[in-house]
Amino acid sequence: MPELPEVEGVVRDLRPIVEGKTIESVSLSDVVYTSHEAGKQAIVKNAKPSQFELLVRDMKIDKLERRSKYIFFHLKKNDERFILVNHLGMSGAWFVVNDVVEITEEKFRKHIHAIFTLASGELLVYADIRRFGELRFIKELADHPPLLKMAPEPFDESACDFFLTQSEKPKFAKKAIKEVIMDGQVISGCGNIYATEALFKLFIHPGRVTSDLNREKKMELFQMICDVLQESIDSGGSTISDYRSINGGAGTMQHRLKMYGKKQCVICEANTESIVIGGRTSTYCPQCQK
Ligand SMILES: [Zn+2]
After folding, report:
1. Is 67 a catalytic residue?
2. Ligand 1 center–CA 180 separation, angstroms
3. Within 13 Å of residue 209, how many CA atoms lie on the same side as its CB?
């Protein structure tokens, strides 16, 4: 799924286009409606589709913010403030167009699930091929408690200490280091791609038990994760699978990855191996990573 740098790229691209604009109306797809009737709640969470369409109407998009892998649309109506929380899931993508025919990639055009008509006349379109993404209208973070459990932003001053403290808790200390650094309650926004890269760069086997790493090594790993995330933000994120920036835009970090998706180690040329950790495939070099 898109990780912190990819979501940051979407927010940076979307911000100048939609901030300050008013949502005149919103229309959700038939798929969203029928899934709710079947009790499955595709895309739109915590509200019925018809309610959601009414709630968001006439809201001004005051500010866009990224928190971990979420996009927060801070909305305002008169003096009341709300947040439309979006998670891109596996393949969520945003477009700003005058007409949906401008969305050139058919796989996205065929899977449009929300069209926000802005007062400017533009359409803010959310497409999601696999429908694991979310749109959630809330008044405050406490309305969706998992949001309160998010680790601080990795670039915040407190984030490294938070990581060290969390990683020492019994619940995490006995787990594989890769599973721990990918947990949003330990570090915000680091998923499979950047966890794989950071561990490889420090020659740490992804299956190493967390308590096995001393404090210095953990601090070094935390810094490496920040470096890899920053490098990716600067490259516009990794455009792999169905990740896109807005309007189908692409980043270049996928060309800079050293281990994720590789068959051979770039250092020793050994064949890479894969193991499943915390339900995710983890690629590593059996020679370099111990
Ligand atoms: Zn190697």
Report:
1. no
2. 23
3. 7
